[in-house]
Task: inverse folding
């Protein structure tokens, strides 16, 4: 890659990272190009789709989440592991709206990010099972109960952090207290199934995505690009 092309690519990544962090994953791609000081055609030469750009920007975030998962699973005290695991995720989510979208919405396929939601669900499932075996988590809850409520808490974070950056810690503590053994009140209805949770997040994504910019195609077609394909390399 030529030096100027490498510079443009790095600039686009840095700009996208900043824009996603501040505004979430639905930022128009032409806005990213404009903020980076390059043309739309340059953006699409390096990142033909939104998914390609998202995958590059959040590759490190995926690694951080994987590290948090491995550390939690290696901790003997399951309840302590649950607290630390969700605290680490919420620290990331509270500081970055893009990561918030990544962990709470059915984001279209992005390179390197396919396994995030499944890895998170598997980690939480293992921790829930161990905490129940150790007697610290009530026996009548399932993994989807925790994921459902955690997702709702994550989606409220942008508003909460505007009030106070650490406000999420209060509500995480309240949420987790409801799962402790001593909470013990009978639950009135059955839990949501995993497939329904996926569908809910998929519908959330569809509702937030403009109708004329489907998530599996470039959201902003550059004016100087051929109509049938992004500009050639």
Result:
């Amino acid at each position: 890659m030529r030096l100027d092309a490498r510079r443009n690519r790095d600039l686009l990544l840095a700009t996208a990272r900043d824009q996603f962090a501040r505004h979430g994953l639905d930022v128009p791609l032409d806005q990213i190009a404009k903020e980076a000081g390059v043309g739309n055609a340059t953006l699409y030469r390096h990142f033909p789709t939104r998914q390609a750009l998202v995958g590059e920007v959040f590759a490190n975030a995926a690694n951080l989440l994987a590290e948090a998962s491995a550390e939690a699973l290696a901790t003997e005290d399951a309840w302590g592991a649950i607290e630390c695991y969700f605290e680490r995720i919420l620290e990331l989510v509270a500081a970055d709206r893009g990561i918030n979208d990544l962990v709470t919405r059915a984001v279209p396929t992005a390179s390197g990010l396919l396994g995030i939601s499944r890895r998170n669900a598997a980690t939480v499932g293992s921790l829930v099972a161990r905490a129940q075996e150790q007697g610290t988590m009530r026996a009548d809850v399932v993994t989807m109960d925790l994921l459902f409520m955690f997702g709702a808490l994550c989606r409220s974070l942008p508003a909460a952090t505007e009030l106070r950056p650490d406000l999420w810690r209060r509500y995480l503590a309240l949420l987790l207290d409801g799962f402790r053994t001593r909470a013990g009140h009978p639950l009135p209805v059955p839990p949501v199934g995993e497939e329904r949770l996926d569908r809910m997040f998929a519908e959330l994504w569809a509702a937030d995505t403009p109708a004329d910019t489907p998530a599996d195609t470039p959201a902003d077609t550059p004016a100087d690009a051929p109509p049938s394909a992004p500009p050639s390399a």
Q: What stands out?
A: The chain has a mean pLDDT of 81. The chain is about 65% helix and 0% strand. The first helix runs from residue 3 to 23.
